[in-house]
Design goal:
- This protein has about 375 residues and is an alpha/beta fold.
- The chain contains 13 helices and 14 strands.
- About 40% of the residues lie in helices and about 20% in strands.
- A hairpin with a 2-residue loop joins β6 and β7.
- Bound molecules: 3-isopropylmalic acid (IPM) and manganese (II) ion.
- The site of 3-isopropylmalic acid has 5 residues, from α4.
Length: about 375
């Protein structure tokens, strides 16, 4: 099969982790006899440095022409990087928002899974973590507050800032359908998260989600207020299968969910439109503090590449081969620093490796 893949190495640890994911894809290409074409584009700070803007129209066109996009991470240290002296629309993050909108990537899938081998890294009490959890956060990605009109004006001698939160029925319906479809392939439970006790947009969200639910009688639907959901994620994460929610709630809750796994460096994500096209990226950020040190965990990016093989190219066997290789590497006791056990006894049982070594070890097991 011919696979036309655009890569966005981006900023911080992005280039290092994308290099390892590419290495793994090339191994798949060789073992399974595919033909992969890779092209890099600039986005975020890397693009600002060269073009003065976080994403050019040419880069968008290149991404659009591909079958899928594999991204590392973008952004720098928001306190010290010169990129953050620019106005918001010119900062690295604006590139990411722009590509999501331009490619209509409205459905963001963020799995949060507790890996058995890494249970010791979970910050929750043992009586909670031993039950395990495996949830999928479905975040609406091109609407809501992040894309509403915004402005800062002077009124009565002081500044006033306005952001707008808008959702239409069709925007809610298409993400809800994706959520229920995914739930049908999992444990058939959807928790729709909103703030319907206060917000109109949430009340419309609830109404449309209930309408969509009628087409999926096998799926159990429950509604949960977002503040309660934030509590439940640390109290009893095992109760969740699919969490379906709007853009900002999903941004915040997915970070929380990934943190309770204790291994944000392990979590992949996919941003999809209504075709097979997708942008795949690790859930973690650009980690500028450890960039260039060769210690970042490439597994989330490698697992994102596996997601890409599964969702965009329907290559289930190849995707599983990557996932199994990752599992085997963990079983064999290899860890990057972020997933090293904290206690001395635990450390003696495992071997700490760097970014490149981790990529090599996974390739060897494919
Ligand atoms: C994410 C990031 C982005 C977001 C930023 C960089 C705009 O935090 O993918 O979660 O908030 O969507
Ligand atoms: Mn975020």
């Amino acid at each position: 099969m011919k696979l036309n893949i655009v890569c966005i190495p981006g900023d911080g640890i992005g280039p290092e982790i994308v290099t390892e994911a590419k290495k793994v894809l090339k191994k798949i290409e060789a073992v399974y006899g595919h033909e992969m074409q890779f092209e890099d584009i600039l986005m975020g700070g890397a693009s600002i440095d060269v073009h003065g803007v976080p994403l050019t129209d040419e880069a968008i066109a290149t991404a659009k022409a591909a079958d899928a996009v594999l991204m590392g991470s973008i952004g720098g240290n928001t306190q010290t990087s010169p990129w953050y002296k620019l106005e918001p629309s010119k900062r690295p993050e604006a590139g990411l928002l722009k590509i999501r909108k331009a490619l209509n990537l409205f459905a963001n899938l963020r799995p949060a899974v507790l890996y058995e081998e890494l249970a010791a890294a979970c910050p929750l009490k043992q009586e909670i973590s031993e039950k395990g959890f495996d949830m999928m956060i479905m975040r609406e990605l091109t609407g809501g507050l992040y894309f509403g009109e915004r402005k800062t004006v002077e009124e009565n001698g002081e500044l006033k800032a306005v952001d707008t939160l808008t959702y239409s029925e069709s925007e809610i319906r298409r993400i809800a359908i994706k959520g229920f479809e995914i739930a049908m392939k999992r444990r058939k439970k959807v928790t729709s998260v909103d703030k319907a006790n206060v917000l109109d947009s949430s009340r419309l969200w609830r109404k449309v989600v209930e309408e969509v639910a009628k087409d999926y009688p096998e799926v159990t639907l429950e509604h949960m207020l977002v503040d309660n959901c934030a509590m439940q994620l640390v109290k009893d994460p095992g109760q969740f299968d699919v969490i379906l929610t709007e853009n900002m709630f999903g941004d915040i809750l997915s970070d929380e969910a990934s943190m309770v796994t204790g291994s944000i460096g392990m979590l992949s994500s996919a941003s999809l439109n209504d075709t097979k096209f997708g942008l795949y990226e690790p859930s973690g950020g650009s980690a500028p503090d450890i960039a260039g040190k060769g210690i970042a965990n490439p597994i989330a990016t490698i697992l994102s590449a596996a997601m890409m093989l599964r969702y965009t190219f329907d290559l289930d066997e190849e995707a599983s081969a990557i996932e199994k290789a990752v599992k085997k590497v963990l079983e064999d006791g290899y860890r990057t620093i972020d997933i090293m056990p904290q206690d001395e006894a635990g450390k003696q049982k495992v071997t700490q490796v760097g970014t490149k070594e981790m990529g090599d070890l996974i390739c060897e097991r494919i």
